[in-house]
Each structure stands twice: as C-alpha cells, then as structure tokens.
Amino acid sequence: MTLKERDKKHLWHPLTQHKLHPETIAIVKAKACTLTDEDGNTYIDAIASWYTCMYGHCNPFITERVTTQMQQLDQVVFSGFTHEPAVKLSEALIAILPDNQNKLFFSDNGSTSVEIGIKMALQYHFNHGDKRSVLLAFEDGFHGDTFGAMSVSSLSVYNGPFEDFFLDVKRIPTPNGDNHEAILNLLEKLVLEHDIAGFVYEPLVQGAAAMKMHNAEGLNQILKFCKAHQIITVADEVMTGFGKTGKHFASDYMDTMPDIICMSKALTAGLLPMAITSCSQDIYDAFYSDDMSKGLFHGHTYSANPLACTAALAGIELLQSDDIQQNIQRISAAHQQFNARIKNHPKVKTTRQTGIIFALDLDIEMERYGNLRDKLLVFFMDNGVFLRPLGSTIYIQAPYIITDSELEKVYKTIENALEIL
Ligand SMILES: *Cc1c(COP(=O)(O)O)cnc(C)c1O
User: What is the pTM of this model?
Assistant: First the structure.
C-alpha cells in the first residue's frame, strides 16, 4: 500500500473536508526548492511550505547546526532555567527587530504568539488598574486558529460554531490611500464608545486574506492614533517577518513602532515549530512587580526549545548574509518583470507586490475551496509547481534561494494555467 492510501486510515488533515477532498500527496523528500513525492514526481515549492523554509528545505547550514545542538542539549524547562541557544537567539533577534523591542516571550506557533500578544495587551492595562476589554482589528485579518486569534481574525465561514465564544472585537478597514481620514474618524468614534485595550494587525500584507496589501502611510497614522490613546499595538508579523516585504520586518516601513510583535513561520527557517512574541520595555515593566500576580502566567512546555532556537539563530544569520539579501532583491526585480508581462492579461483583474510576495487576482469568480480553484491547484501540481490559490488569487512566496530557471517555470506555469480556465 502506498503512503497516501495508508494515510486515509488514521489521519485527519488541517483545513480539509475529507469527504470532498479525500486525496493527499505523500512527500518523501524536500531539498532546496524541490518537493519529491512517493511516486517520484517533483514540485517546486513556490509558497515555501506556507512561507516557512525561506532559505530552502533541508538547508545544510541550518541542519548541521541543529544536529550538533541535539547532541549537546535537547530540551529543558524554560522556567527557572536558561540556555545558550535562547540567549544567543535573543541577542541576534533584538538586534534586527525595530529599536523599541527589548524582551522576547516564547511559544510554539503563530496562533499562540498572537494569543500571548493579546494577553500582554489586556493584562498591561489590568496591571495599571485600567480595565479595558475591547480589541481592535482589521477587516479580513487572519491571526490563527486558537480562540483569541480567531476572535481578532475576520469572521469567516469556518468560525461559525465558535463565534458566540469570541472576545469583543471592533473592526476597521485597511488603509488604501483614500480612506485614511474616514478611518481616523471611525477610530475617534470607537474610542469614545469603548475601552480599547489593543490593536492586532498584519502590517502591510494580509496573508490569508489572499495577500491583500495596504498603505504604509495610512497604517502609520493608525498606529500613531493608537499610541496617543494608549491602545497597545500588536503587529502580527508571523507571515511578513524575516525579509518577505524587502525589509527584515514589515513594521520597518512605518516610523511608529509597534509595542508587541508576533513571529513564527520563517522564524525557524521551516525546520521546527516555534514562535516568539517580542515587546517593548514599557510592556515588560507593567508586569515587573513585587506582586506575583502581576506576572505573565503563560507558559508552554516546549518554550524556547534549544533545537528550535538553534534553527532560528542560523536562519537569522542567513537572512543577514549578502547572499540572501541579494536574492531578495533579485526575486523582487523578477516579480516586477513578471508583473509587466501578466498584468494586462484578459483573465487577470489586478496584481500586487510587496518585496518577494507577489499576487494576482483572476477576473473570475471562485469560491475559496471551490471546483475551479481545485482545477487550478491540480493543474499546478500536474505541472510540477506547488502553488495554493486562495480563491481566485494566485500568489507566489518562494524560498529566497529559488533559482532564476525555477522562478521562470513558476511564472510560465501560471501563464499556462490562465489558458485552461
Ligand atoms: C499562519 C499565520 C498565523 C497562525 O500561525 P500558525 O503557526 O498556523 O498557528 C497567524 N498570523 C498570521 C499572519 C499567519 O500568517
């Protein structure tokens, strides 16, 4: 029996309605940008396995460092203990984060990093004796699948059974260059009516909303407004962090810095699951007290796992290398040329790009997991390119080490796909 047949017996996959989508593909190997399945077919991983393995799969620079580390110290409790991989990672990460970030809190995935950001924002006010219970978020945001993260995400069909249990969240539109004044007016109204504790947002690019992009100047104005009203700003950089937007963090495009930043995905270069919520000294100080109960009583068993910290540190070293920085420039420039080639195609409605993130909307109505979208997905896979369209949006977010010829194959396959629709 093949792996994909044996899979059906016991496995339950994420984001899958198994009755409608019973088939999986069994991947047996990944190297650089190539995935290989059990039948020997290969696929270019043009979305870096959900934007994680940005330095390529099984990158030897990272795997060797982790191999060495795993013979030295595998796992230890992070309450009361510390270790070199966490200390070194903290020094390297604080050095590249926006200047006001000064403390790191560990967890295991993007959703928990957001959960912690929300708890920090709520307890910040609580510890100051100022009980605020409402959160602010963008329309169409996505922040993860745990309850706090689901609450600040925009309501989707998948959240139906849980909506009654959500936190109280008010929504504002994303700034598009024309609506900044309207957003500020709305914010003025919201702060009069509600005690707003924090603003949770994906800076510049909203990933799961199909790579929707918004205006940095407008976001900066919103962040300034939040600062003026002691609304804690929580930048969810789980997708945008570590070079995707052309700078180390999307937050680097605004001069108003967030109070809290959530990181995961590319943090560990796709090797191991880990997340970090960073914050400013001001946030940390609100928890620093002779009173035990003012501490942040949140902790995951695998917090700051030494192997994951080692992978993250190696990833940050790669990110800062000339080689990777040049690759980011190269891919951004290639996307611009592809954009010129495809933007006037009759089946293309709009295109957009920030750094190495490129997206195009088809001028065709499609359900997020509908038949036409499935047809597109199957076409890509049959042609050896792993792309996962989000409804009628096709996006590319390939590893930084993708070669020019691989990139051209991705572009060409997208162009060919337009012909079968
Ligand atoms: C993927 C993602 C999350 C959730 O991360 P998980 O590791 O899947 O829990 C949160 N926020 C953003 C912006 C994401 O892209």
Answer: 0.98
